UniProtKB/TrEMBL annotation:
PROSITE patterns reported in the protein's UniProt record: FAS1, PROKAR_LIPOPROTEIN
FAS1 domain mapped to chain residues: 40-176, 178-314, 316-448
Name of this protein: Lipoprotein p23
One GO CC annotation: extracellular space
Superkingdom of source: Bacteria
Amino acid sequence: MKVLKINWYFLVVIILTLNLGLTSCDDDDDTGKEDPKEETNTIVDIASSDATFSILVEALTKADLVSALSGSTEYTVFAPTNTAFEALLSELGASSLDDISKDELTKILLYHVVAGANSSTVLSTGYYPSISEKEGGYYYSIYFNKEDLMLNGAASITQADVMADNGYIHIIDAVMLPPSITDHAIANPALSSLTAAVVKAELATTLDDDENNFTVFAPTDDAFEMLFEDLDVTLDDLSKEALTPILLYHVVNAFVPAAQVTSGYVSALAMGQDNYLSANIDVSNSTVMLNKATVVLTDVVATNGIVHVIDQVLMPNTVVDLAMNNTAFSILVEAVVKAELAETLSGEGPFTVFAPTNAAFEALFATLNVNGIEDLSKETLTPILLAHVVSGNVRSSDLSNGSVPTLNTEKDLTIDISSKVMIDGDISVIIADVQGTNGVVHAIDKVIVP
């Protein structure tokens, strides 16, 4: 029995020794192995694995964008096929991507990319900023029409929702170039009346020129329909000569995104009395108003400017309209209506109006110990108002020291421009050169009393 116990003891020792040896060998083997590489399915991986996108991959490589679209940041890519790129090269007269500069290629490619993972169910009709930058943190806009799965009215989504680790790919049948203002108008069905008007007025080329940098306030089709109803006309009834000043009244010769819009007057490209016409912007409330129009959509970025959509067509303003479109002159308008001078001052003119603000009128009411215009008769108001009107389109640069006659034949104004424009010694011009179709308005801080 003693021998049997010894044999069992040695057997256990041998087994333990063998196990330790095997474990040691396994550990040695593990130190020589590499972890298997993690497989990825990024946007670039998907494009690289499909010969249909070989030109796209070549373009991404040339533009040094492979790394950006292979990372963890999520994007939505509208991916043109080889056929789409071949059509673009033919259109540009290029034989290959080598004929397109890296900078230009980068701008084009980034225009096909939107931040975030957007499936076709998430996308809705409207504008999306691409990641292709124009200037100052503003990016070229893409218009997506969900009804027909079209981008900018030119590229169709032929296959949607190719899911990647870092976003979505939607395959399209045309390469998109960053659009001009004209291109944006053409692409959006809600701006078809504007497009037709621009074409009829022969302004399409102007609004397509990348040498310009405009801000366009674009009326919707509904806005044009309201205008046509008010005028009892159709677009066909309006001549090029009639349309041109109306359309140019919606164009400002500067790049003005919504964040830079402030209350005050802007000069449009429409001309009146040999000067650019003024329009009033009011941002005092939660909405942005341009004359009587409301801005309903902002910052549609184009290669040659920016578009803000509005709900009314702007008509070039007379001096009376300018006052009516600015709440700071509401008491003046009330006085002009009561004195029955609105029709006169809406006539051919030209007139120069020194326009007292509401604060100026309120100071007058306090001096006269009256409550408001309702306490003043037409006979009292008329000579006061006519003392604020000078014949001719007299801008601030036309003024000089001396006496100026008014439409009140018994009252001349004494002008002093020594330091700033002063009237009768104690009245200041606080806003100058608000240009209308039939004259110019200068805002003043006191009512002129004959």
